[in-house]
Amino acid sequence: MKRREFLTSVAALGLASTLPVADAREVSGGQPWEAGQINTPPPPPRTGGLQFLTRHEFDTVAAIADRFIPADEMSLGGKDAGCAVFIDRQLAGDYGNAVALYRLGRFVKGTPEQGPQSPLTPAQRYRQGLSALDAATQAQFAKKFVDLSGDQQDQVLHAMEANQFNLGAEVETKVFFELLLQNVREGFLADPIYGGNKGMTSWKMIGFPGARYDFRDLLSKKGQKLNIIPTSLIDNSL
């Protein structure tokens, strides 16, 4: 995929609103929150090792990230930038467990504009979706996704984006594709303290200064090329 396509495409993921009941399909599932769970801060990321994904799942996500963001003279690719590390950490925490989402049901399949209406957490959707992806590529190419050529991987991802690659009855192909794209984008652009954007590669590419305290020393340089070296939260932590 071209870098411009990656940076400019925005998945149409909206919040659910009023939903017509006619012709809607109710989905069972969902677990209530445990008492006190919502306000519990996530643990700090561990150094090294995987926190949620298996090694094979991690390699698959890294391969997908590299197809979304191929390396070039402007920056590292998605794999080397650490997008899979970012996603692994997020899936192990509050995001992956959907602690900020209403999950008591009932779950009704809505319109595309209303976003995914699923009883599954993002972590569960990844586990289910990656397994389904391997099963589908095994059926079509006799190989798992990570073993496909780059062109074949692009072919699969383009088909997923167009909702033309069947991942089975349990996985909504386009919804899963949009989840992957959203999280890879986040990992590429987020502060490196969260595991991605290695060496602030994306910030250097777009000229983002990062987590600087202030810019008073630059106010007099209007119209000049500043060449600011980005600053990460890692640099400001004690």
Mean pLDDT reading: 82
Shape: globular
Major sheet: 2 strands, antiparallel
One letter per element, helices H and strands E, the order comes to HEHHEHHHHH
Give the end-to-end Cα distance, rounded to a whole number of Å.
39 Å
- How much helix is in the residues? 25-40%
Rounded to an integer, what's the Rg over CA atoms?
A: 20 Å
Helix run count: 8
Structural class: mainly alpha
| Sequence stretches where pLDDT stays below 50 over 5 or more residues | 8-42
| Quaternary assembly | single chain
Beta-strand segment tally: 2
Strand order of the largest sheet: 1-2
Strand content: under 5%
Could you walk me through the main structural features you see in this protein, from its secondary elements to its overall organization?
The protein is an all-alpha fold and 238 residues long. It is built from eight helices and two strands. The radius of gyration is 20 Å and the shape is globular. About 15% of the residues have low confidence.
Blueprint (SSEs and pairs):
Blueprint: H1 3-8, E1 26-27, H2 55-68, H3 83-92, E2 107-108, H4 122-141, H5 150-161, H6 173-189, H7 201-206, H8 233-236
Antiparallel strand pairs: 1-2
Helix pairs in contact: 2-3, 3-6
Name some characteristics of this structure:
238 residues, mainly alpha, two-stranded antiparallel sheet
In brief:
The protein is 37% helix and 2% strand. The chain has eight helices and two strands, in the order αβααβααααα.
